[in-house]
Fold this protein.
Amino acid sequence: MLSVVSWNVNSIKARLLNVCEWLREESPDVVCLQEIKCIDENFPRLEIEDLGYNVETVGQKSYNGVAILSKRPIEEIAHRALPGDEEDGQARYIEAVISADSGPVRIASIYLPNGNPAPGPKYEYKLAWWDRLNAHAQNLLSFEEAVILAGDYNLIPTDDDVHDPAKWDGDALTLPASRERYYALLWQGYRSAFDERDGRAHQYTFWDYQAGAWPKNHGIRIDHLMCSPKAIDALEEVTIAKDTRAKDKASDHVPIVGVFDL
């Protein structure tokens, strides 16, 4: 079995104790982190490696940043940026080939742009990034490997994935053009691990720090494990680790965990 996690930690420095505690208790095989908010040299590599993980990062000072932690051998780092725009300097994508029992598995950690305020340049960047991701995802289907695109997509798929749809009307995370890009990924053959094995309404992965969102359960679901046909066929279960949100100094996101027979 191969367990794969996506977790936006909203600063690895601020969440290090929580992250290490959870990794020690749960011991997942592969962890895709987003918003590490540090350059590569400042990532707490030794603390994570002491827990048995190989560590690869694409960092950026104070903003963005993604990482892949793996207890399995990392055969290759295929990309340290999303293909399609050599001038894009934002640290939002890393892709690795991981050794699994069934053979190589291709896993990416993704931090898709928020896009607000919309309309505007930030929203145009979000849509262009989505288009590049979908084009690359299509290319990945040509590999004879399971593909798992794990990350914070900054995308609420349906009104069942938000506590109050009216409050998010007009937001970049729910606009029709944003959702169209998500559906385009589905049309290629990718599937949401959560929707395939759970699918309940109002199961969230993010609760804002403002206005008592966590105790009121005013959340949204924006963290996704998007799986190629080969990966989705191997999916056994999915869980959202909500308890991490109740910790002291918690991230506003929680881990989503997929277990695959790979």
Observations:
- The longest helix spans residues 121-140.
- The longest strand covers residues 103-111.
- The chain has one domain: 2-260.
- The chain has seven helices and 14 strands.
